[in-house]
Design a protein that fits this description.
308 residues; homotrimer
């Protein structure tokens, strides 16, 4: 398997490079301005984008779909449950079949790390966009988080960013860290219950702690991750209330961060578990800006990769 | 919860007012003429309509989808089963997320009364269109029924309209009655087996009876409702044959109505249970006109509410 | 039930006639050239195509959907599982309802032979395209196979074509045979284990055998059919390895065919059961050309049937 071409595919932000990341953020901001001015051109007219979601995610799929269709692309939501893949066809044959129908890009979500890379290695001409694979990467989430921080803070350089929750299983944390490090964040702190913290060597750039109060202290940005209910059941000694008490972000805890600290969450949120409702809905929350930017970042990625 | 804005949302025909209802019917007729002349303009180009169907209804969803897309809107069918809502996200957060992606209108069907109103109260900018909630309202069905009657009869004023079937659980009956009353129908008769009749105070405008022969006598319009199989099983002493004998519309019974009486049904029909096939397919039946008008009424509602 | 109009519907290639088949192939080739030159006009703008798939087939549905949408049609994927049909509505009423919404064409797949013909007999104005019914017919698969053969061989006339696999249950084999015979193929050989061979009278044009080596000898074209796993379980004495040994196409067996013989498969392929991977991916394989041509053949059928 050859290394996939970074100018054709987007598989991870790791080692993507500062320049390439900044170019995508700048393009997203340009497309956002065009959309809001009502002057977005149909840059992808005649192109076909296929959503290949092997894990449910209406939110991310809809964001990609709106991005592609607003740029004039034709989008096919490939229904995995009733597809040839479920009839024993290899994933590579499904990809080759859809490429033979002149698909230009595949948006892939899969529970196993590396599936998008495997498909990218097999694609003859089409682009592969990773929409989340296992706990490996979710690069468009990373990009939209970077854009949202840059919108509010005017920079990434030197910022202190705290990410809290189930870091061990989180592709969002990984892509955020790769993006933040590439753009020169000052300190990245990872926090969560011990059982949900990552192996230390996975995040050499970061400070890792299970003390949330300390992790929030003086932060410019606090990113809260969704806690999957199944994980909580495996956390000895935790229930929703104890989790919220120790790792939930409420106004008191947020007061430890900088006065102008911003709060983020990739959604969907568990209100009252990892985040208090007044924080989620407060002036410091950038949650809905993240969602809005998601569409523009995906437009930029589709535009840059397929029209390159 | 504030009262939702009637110029932005369509939640019920109750108290909507004669002028507003007539404006929607007139707009539907205009759009119908444009469509049939091949000159329908893409009035909703650049707009995004989200179908949020928490109950299955391919018929109604397809009607809304065709209405929106023929006007140039981009339509997203939000898949509830695989959505964040099923991951514990609140419905309000799902709405806010989709609004952040610049959704302009939500078409909502839900088994609980009031869900569309609840979402309308929460929407910051988007329109909410009720596509049926519990037994509360189905306003576009009411509007398409009014348009279909007006097409054939040239008026609503003074007409005698009989609605027969499971009135108690029917949102169609409620929206029909609200619309007919607003436009001055002469007499509205509600008929069905006792267990399926509504509480008297729910329909102060109507004559309620369990005698179908009497209810049909001299009617200008006969609206037959679909009987859900589950309901019949709970009706003591009824099976399909006895239901049809007492509350089914066949040619003999229809002969009691006016010679030019028209027959309606919101579909899907149970032939041989609430309606005889020869009546359903006969010259007096306006069933397919109702379906056709459904698309135009939904176009009108989308146009008037989102473009104001 | 009247005989459906062959200029409005496509139900089978049987008795369709050489001229009509050639006209469809020629139109497909024209549309292919336009698409590849980036000059395909929106011939179906304003038209509505409804996919009615009562059997799962993402591959065929996607091919039809791309064909229609690239020609500018609006496509609705009618969700059978949540539709009125599942609420007891007759299939004819579902069709009539969608026609009342101004559907122009129905693409129908159904496990029962004759369902598309039944719907065609009922359609008042719309075209019905058979996308596969039982083991009766799959006419667009037949057409795309003919186009693919003609592309490589410049003719159909006089060719020796071998079709191997589960002939008995295959609508692909039936439509291939009808098309090949109409265009003057020299010899058509059908091969498979005895239990999967058809009744002799079903294929009077063909030589039928259970000896694959003999059937491949000197062939110009070898069409391998997918073996459904359920069928194998009912084949006494067969497992995957024995099936592949006797009826799988590998390089050794292919060497018996003409040196320039081409290999085809309708997909999805069971690699290592009916076809060896090196043959499937080799230079003689036309499998991906079949897929590509599928889209253009479906464009041609939609264009010719709905625009006349």
């Amino acid at each position: 398997m050859t290394t996939p071409d970074r100018t054709r595919h987007l598989l991870t932000l790791e080692n993507l490079g500062r320049e390439r990341i900044l170019a995508l953020l700048d393009r997203a901001a340009e497309l956002r301005a065009s959309w809001r001015a009502g002057t977005l051109p149909p840059l992808l007219a005649g192109r076909t984008v296929v959503n290949l979601f092997f894990e449910n995610s209406t939110r991310t799929r809809t964001s990609f779909e709106l991005a592609a269709r607003r740029l004039g692309a034709l989008v096919v939501n490939f229904d995995i449950a009733s597809s040839s893949t479920s009839k024993g066809e290899t994933l590579e044959d499904t990809l080759a079949t859809l490429e033979a129908m002149d698909a230009d890009a595949f948006v892939v979500r899969h529970k196993e790390n590396g599936t998008p890379a495997r498909l990218a290695a097999h694609a003859r001409r089409a682009s592969v966009l990773n929409a989340g694979d296992g706990n490996h990467a979710h690069p468009t989430q990373g990009l939209l988080d970077l854009l949202t921080i840059r919108d509010r803070k005017d920079r990434i350089d030197g910022l202190t960013v705290t990410i809290c929750g189930d870091i061990r299983h989180s592709r969002v944390a990984r892509s955020d860290v790769h993006g933040l490090a590439a753009l020169g964040a000052g300190e990245i702190r990872l926090c969560g219950p011990g059982a949900l913290l990552p192996d230390a060597q996975d995040f050499p750039q970061c400070r890792v702690t299970d003390d949330f109060d300390a992790a929030v202290e003086g932060a410019d940005v606090v990113v809260m991750l969704r806690l999957q209910k199944e994980r909580m059941e495996n956390l000895a000694g935790f229930d929703e209330a104890t989790y919220f008490a120790r790792y939930g972000l409420d106004a008191t805890r947020l007061a430890r961060a900088r006065p102008d600290a911003m709060v983020m969450h990739p959604g969907p949120m568990n209100r009252g578990i990892e985040i208090a409702s007044d924080v989620a809905d407060g002036a410091r929350s950038a949650v809905l800006e993240q969602v809005a930017n998601g569409v523009f970042v995906r437009m930029a990625v589709l535009d840059v990769l397929t029209r390159g």
